[in-house]
Design brief:
Layout: H1 2-29, E1 32-36, E2 54-55, E3 58-67, E4 73-76, E5 82-89, E6 92-99, E7 108-112, E8 115-119, E9 128-135, E10 139-145, E11 153-159
Parallel strand pairs: 1-5, 3-6, 5-11
Antiparallel strand pairs: 2-3, 3-4, 6-9, 7-8, 7-10, 10-11
């Protein structure tokens, strides 16, 4: 009887370790990387390493729809970060330029606690779009795709300048 009890403990431990290893392997493939989009003057380049350029009072951010295996979709920035956290400055206007090279439609939505704050137009396969967003207040917001909200999603952190 003691031998059977010992085998159940080992089996349970092996299952837990297996689940943890699989989870770590999956999450490490889709690590959320952060980017910063910072307002810059017209005489200097944007300080963000991944978002594009700034002209006047509007800062540009680039996001592309990305199709992974098994028709799984994610957002990706120009630095290849998957579903990146966007660090924005309050009292700044942003234009998020979106490319859709996939074979399905996408629509970018910015929200907070279930309330929609801004959204792009629907982008058909192979098309581009944009979303203009005024970061008027500080706080944490979220962004997602209307059609793929569980996989194409990320965080927007807006802080004071």
């Amino acid at each position: 009887m003691g031998y059977l009890h010992y085998n159940k403990k080992i089996l349970t431990l092996c299952m837990i370790v297996s689940v943890l290893l699989i989870g770590m392997s999956y999450s490490s493939h889709y690590l959320i990387q952060t980017i910063s989009a910072k307002k810059s003057s017209s005489s200097e380049k944007a300080s963000s390493t991944s978002t594009g350029s700034s002209s006047g009072n509007t800062t540009s951010i680039a996001l592309n729809a990305l199709e992974l295996k098994n028709e799984t979709y994610r957002w990706q920035n120009t630095s290849k970060a998957i579903n990146p956290t966007l660090h924005l400055n309050a009292n700044t206007d942003y234009t998020i330029k979106i490319k859709n090279p996939t074979d399905t439609k996408h629509e970018l939505i910015i929200g907070s606690n279930g309330t929609e704050i801004a959204k792009s137009n629907e982008m058909a396969p192979g098309k581009t779009g944009k979303l203009t967003f005024q970061a008027n207040s500080t706080g944490t917001f979220e962004y997602h795709c209307e059609y793929h909200p569980d996989t194409m999603k990320g965080i927007i952190e807006i802080s004071g300048q």
